[in-house]
Amino acid sequence: MDGNGRWAKQRGLPRSEGHKAGSETAKRILDACHARGIRHLTLYTFSRENWSRPKDEVSFLFDLLQSFIKRELGKLVEKSVQLRVLGELEELPFATRQALRLAINKTRGGQSMILNLALNYSGRDEILRACRRLMTDGVSPEEITEEAFSQRLYTAGQPDPDLIIRTSGELRLSNYLLFQAAYSEFYFTDKLWPDFDEAELDIALANYASRQRRFGSTSEQVGTKE
Protein backbone atom coordinates (compact mmCIF):
# COMPACT_ATOMS: atom_id res chain seq x y z
CA MET A 1 0.00 0.00 0.00
CA ASP A 2 2.51 2.59 -1.24
CA GLY A 3 2.24 6.31 -1.71
CA ASN A 4 0.65 7.71 1.45
CA GLY A 5 3.52 10.12 2.09
CA ARG A 6 3.69 11.30 -1.51
CA TRP A 7 -0.10 11.76 -1.59
CA ALA A 8 0.14 14.05 1.44
CA LYS A 9 3.16 15.94 0.08
CA GLN A 10 1.36 16.69 -3.19
CA ARG A 11 -1.39 18.36 -1.14
CA GLY A 12 0.91 20.24 1.22
CA LEU A 13 -0.18 18.05 4.13
CA PRO A 14 1.83 16.24 6.82
CA ARG A 15 2.59 12.57 6.19
CA SER A 16 0.18 11.63 8.96
CA GLU A 17 -2.73 12.85 6.80
CA GLY A 18 -1.56 10.56 4.03
CA HIS A 19 -1.57 7.60 6.40
CA LYS A 20 -5.07 8.52 7.59
CA ALA A 21 -6.28 8.62 3.99
CA GLY A 22 -4.52 5.33 3.33
CA SER A 23 -6.35 3.66 6.24
CA GLU A 24 -9.67 4.74 4.74
CA THR A 25 -8.63 3.23 1.42
CA ALA A 26 -7.77 -0.02 3.22
CA LYS A 27 -11.28 -0.12 4.66
CA ARG A 28 -12.91 0.50 1.26
CA ILE A 29 -10.77 -2.11 -0.49
CA LEU A 30 -11.49 -4.66 2.25
CA ASP A 31 -15.22 -4.06 1.80
CA ALA A 32 -14.89 -4.25 -1.99
CA CYS A 33 -12.94 -7.54 -1.86
CA HIS A 34 -15.47 -9.00 0.55
CA ALA A 35 -18.34 -7.97 -1.74
CA ARG A 36 -16.59 -9.63 -4.69
CA GLY A 37 -16.19 -12.94 -2.89
CA ILE A 38 -12.41 -12.76 -2.48
CA ARG A 39 -11.61 -15.21 0.30
CA HIS A 40 -8.08 -14.07 1.22
CA LEU A 41 -6.72 -10.52 1.35
CA THR A 42 -3.29 -9.57 2.67
CA LEU A 43 -2.38 -5.93 3.33
CA TYR A 44 1.32 -5.15 3.71
CA THR A 45 0.87 -2.86 6.68
CA PHE A 46 4.31 -2.45 8.29
CA SER A 47 7.58 -4.10 7.33
CA ARG A 48 10.50 -4.78 9.64
CA GLU A 49 12.41 -2.23 7.59
CA ASN A 50 9.81 0.42 8.46
CA TRP A 51 11.24 0.65 11.99
CA SER A 52 13.93 2.88 10.46
CA ARG A 53 11.37 5.65 9.86
CA PRO A 54 11.19 8.65 12.22
CA LYS A 55 9.98 7.59 15.67
CA ASP A 56 7.03 9.96 15.67
CA GLU A 57 5.80 8.53 12.35
CA VAL A 58 6.15 4.95 13.60
CA SER A 59 4.25 5.84 16.78
CA PHE A 60 1.50 7.50 14.74
CA LEU A 61 1.19 4.44 12.49
CA PHE A 62 0.61 2.13 15.45
CA ASP A 63 -1.89 4.54 17.01
CA LEU A 64 -3.70 4.65 13.68
CA LEU A 65 -3.69 0.86 13.46
CA GLN A 66 -5.19 0.56 16.94
CA SER A 67 -7.93 3.06 16.08
CA PHE A 68 -8.64 1.21 12.83
CA ILE A 69 -8.97 -2.15 14.60
CA LYS A 70 -11.21 -0.80 17.36
CA ARG A 71 -13.43 0.98 14.85
CA GLU A 72 -13.74 -1.93 12.43
CA LEU A 73 -13.81 -4.90 14.79
CA GLY A 74 -17.59 -5.03 15.02
CA LYS A 75 -17.90 -4.96 11.23
CA LEU A 76 -15.34 -7.73 10.85
CA VAL A 77 -17.32 -9.92 13.23
CA GLU A 78 -20.60 -9.02 11.51
CA LYS A 79 -19.20 -9.90 8.09
CA SER A 80 -17.53 -13.09 9.39
CA VAL A 81 -14.03 -11.86 8.47
CA GLN A 82 -11.19 -13.57 10.30
CA LEU A 83 -8.21 -11.38 11.16
CA ARG A 84 -4.70 -12.81 11.19
CA VAL A 85 -1.27 -11.24 11.56
CA LEU A 86 1.74 -12.21 9.46
CA GLY A 87 4.85 -11.11 11.35
CA GLU A 88 6.44 -10.92 14.79
CA LEU A 89 3.62 -9.75 17.02
CA GLU A 90 5.67 -9.80 20.23
CA GLU A 91 7.92 -6.96 19.02
CA LEU A 92 5.03 -4.51 18.62
CA PRO A 93 4.04 -1.91 21.24
CA PHE A 94 2.02 -3.36 24.12
CA ALA A 95 -1.23 -1.52 23.34
CA THR A 96 -1.04 -2.56 19.69
CA ARG A 97 -0.47 -6.21 20.67
CA GLN A 98 -3.45 -6.13 23.00
CA ALA A 99 -5.75 -4.63 20.36
CA LEU A 100 -4.61 -7.17 17.78
CA ARG A 101 -4.98 -10.16 20.11
CA LEU A 102 -8.49 -9.07 21.02
CA ALA A 103 -9.43 -8.73 17.35
CA ILE A 104 -7.84 -12.06 16.43
CA ASN A 105 -9.75 -13.83 19.20
CA LYS A 106 -13.05 -12.10 18.44
CA THR A 107 -12.87 -12.94 14.73
CA ARG A 108 -11.42 -16.44 15.03
CA GLY A 109 -14.63 -18.06 13.82
CA GLY A 110 -14.91 -15.93 10.67
CA GLN A 111 -15.76 -18.06 7.63
CA SER A 112 -16.39 -15.64 4.76
CA MET A 113 -12.89 -14.18 4.41
CA ILE A 114 -9.42 -14.10 5.94
CA LEU A 115 -7.80 -10.68 6.30
CA ASN A 116 -4.05 -10.91 6.82
CA LEU A 117 -2.15 -7.90 8.11
CA ALA A 118 1.53 -8.26 7.22
CA LEU A 119 2.79 -6.42 10.28
CA ASN A 120 6.39 -6.22 11.43
CA TYR A 121 6.87 -8.59 8.52
CA SER A 122 9.90 -9.67 6.48
CA GLY A 123 9.82 -12.36 3.79
CA ARG A 124 13.42 -13.34 4.42
CA ASP A 125 12.89 -13.56 8.17
CA GLU A 126 9.78 -15.66 7.58
CA ILE A 127 11.84 -18.16 5.56
CA LEU A 128 14.57 -18.28 8.23
CA ARG A 129 11.88 -18.74 10.90
CA ALA A 130 10.42 -21.69 9.00
CA CYS A 131 13.90 -23.25 8.71
CA ARG A 132 14.48 -22.90 12.45
CA ARG A 133 11.09 -24.47 13.17
CA LEU A 134 11.92 -27.42 10.94
CA MET A 135 15.11 -27.96 12.92
CA THR A 136 13.36 -27.49 16.28
CA ASP A 137 10.68 -29.97 15.22
CA GLY A 138 13.38 -32.52 14.43
CA VAL A 139 12.42 -32.87 10.77
CA SER A 140 15.05 -34.89 8.90
CA PRO A 141 16.40 -33.64 5.54
CA GLU A 142 14.53 -36.42 3.75
CA GLU A 143 11.23 -35.23 5.27
CA ILE A 144 11.61 -31.59 4.23
CA THR A 145 9.10 -30.95 1.45
CA GLU A 146 7.41 -27.83 0.13
CA GLU A 147 4.34 -28.78 2.13
CA ALA A 148 6.32 -29.27 5.35
CA PHE A 149 8.03 -25.93 4.79
CA SER A 150 4.78 -24.11 3.94
CA GLN A 151 3.16 -25.36 7.13
CA ARG A 152 5.78 -23.45 9.12
CA LEU A 153 5.19 -20.11 7.40
CA TYR A 154 2.88 -17.43 8.78
CA THR A 155 0.46 -18.27 5.98
CA ALA A 156 0.15 -21.97 6.90
CA GLY A 157 -3.16 -23.38 5.71
CA GLN A 158 -3.80 -20.56 3.25
CA PRO A 159 -3.34 -20.62 -0.52
CA ASP A 160 -0.47 -18.76 -2.15
CA PRO A 161 -1.49 -15.33 -3.46
CA ASP A 162 -2.96 -15.38 -6.97
CA LEU A 163 -2.50 -11.63 -7.49
CA ILE A 164 -0.16 -9.08 -5.93
CA ILE A 165 -1.05 -5.43 -6.46
CA ARG A 166 1.51 -2.69 -5.92
CA THR A 167 0.63 0.97 -6.04
CA SER A 168 2.47 4.28 -6.62
CA GLY A 169 4.69 3.06 -9.46
CA GLU A 170 6.97 0.86 -7.34
CA LEU A 171 8.19 -2.17 -9.31
CA ARG A 172 9.70 -4.52 -6.74
CA LEU A 173 8.69 -7.15 -4.17
CA SER A 174 10.23 -5.37 -1.17
CA ASN A 175 10.70 -8.53 0.87
CA TYR A 176 7.03 -9.49 0.59
CA LEU A 177 5.81 -13.12 0.69
CA LEU A 178 8.96 -14.26 -1.09
CA PHE A 179 8.25 -18.00 -0.87
CA GLN A 180 4.51 -17.70 -1.47
CA ALA A 181 4.83 -15.38 -4.49
CA ALA A 182 6.65 -17.91 -6.68
CA TYR A 183 3.76 -18.12 -9.17
CA SER A 184 1.76 -15.01 -8.29
CA GLU A 185 0.61 -12.61 -10.96
CA PHE A 186 1.56 -8.95 -10.50
CA TYR A 187 -0.33 -5.75 -11.20
CA PHE A 188 1.48 -2.42 -10.97
CA THR A 189 -0.23 0.96 -11.01
CA ASP A 190 1.03 4.53 -10.71
CA LYS A 191 -1.93 5.44 -8.51
CA LEU A 192 -0.96 6.38 -4.97
CA TRP A 193 -2.59 4.15 -2.37
CA PRO A 194 -5.04 6.78 -1.03
CA ASP A 195 -6.32 7.19 -4.62
CA PHE A 196 -6.67 3.45 -5.23
CA ASP A 197 -10.41 2.79 -5.43
CA GLU A 198 -12.92 0.11 -6.41
CA ALA A 199 -12.65 1.04 -10.09
CA GLU A 200 -8.88 0.49 -10.03
CA LEU A 201 -9.37 -2.76 -8.12
CA ASP A 202 -11.74 -3.99 -10.81
CA ILE A 203 -9.23 -3.05 -13.51
CA ALA A 204 -6.59 -5.10 -11.68
CA LEU A 205 -8.95 -8.04 -11.31
CA ALA A 206 -9.97 -7.88 -14.99
CA ASN A 207 -6.30 -7.73 -15.98
CA TYR A 208 -5.62 -10.79 -13.84
CA ALA A 209 -8.60 -12.66 -15.30
CA SER A 210 -7.28 -12.08 -18.84
CA ARG A 211 -3.99 -13.84 -18.13
CA GLN A 212 -3.19 -17.48 -18.73
CA ARG A 213 -1.55 -19.12 -15.72
CA ARG A 214 0.56 -22.02 -16.97
CA PHE A 215 2.63 -23.01 -13.90
CA GLY A 216 5.35 -24.42 -16.18
CA SER A 217 2.99 -26.09 -18.68
CA THR A 218 2.47 -24.99 -22.28
CA SER A 219 -0.43 -22.89 -23.54
CA GLU A 220 -1.79 -25.91 -25.36
CA GLN A 221 -1.79 -27.97 -22.17
CA VAL A 222 -3.77 -25.48 -20.12
CA GLY A 223 -6.00 -24.36 -23.00
CA THR A 224 -6.64 -20.92 -24.44
CA LYS A 225 -8.19 -18.47 -21.98
CA GLU A 226 -11.49 -17.09 -23.28
Share of helix, binned:
40-55%
Q: What is the helix/strand order? A: HHEHEHEHHEEHH
Please work out how many helical segments DSSP would assign. 8
The geometry reads as globular
Description:
There is one protein chain. The mean pLDDT is 95. The longest helix is centred in the first third of the chain and has 24 residues, at 55-78. By secondary structure, this protein is an alpha/beta fold. It has helices spanning 4-10, 15-35, 55-78, 94-106, 123-136, 146-150, 198-209, 219-222, and strands spanning 40-47, 81-86, 113-121, 163-166, 185-188. It is 44% helix and 14% strand.
Element layout with pairings:
Blueprint: H1 4-10, H2 15-35, E1 40-47, H3 55-78, E2 81-86, H4 94-106, E3 113-121, H5 123-136, H6 146-150, E4 163-166, E5 185-188, H7 198-209, H8 219-222
